[in-house]
Amino acid sequence: MKNIAAQMVNFDREQMRR
């Protein structure tokens, strides 16, 4: 479950970088 949170944060960060 912790992995999902990390993936969600990474996804948000990647989208913000774009």
TrEMBL record:
Domain of life: Bacteria
Stated name of the protein: Replication protein RepP
Organism this protein belongs to: Salmonella enterica (Salmonella choleraesuis)
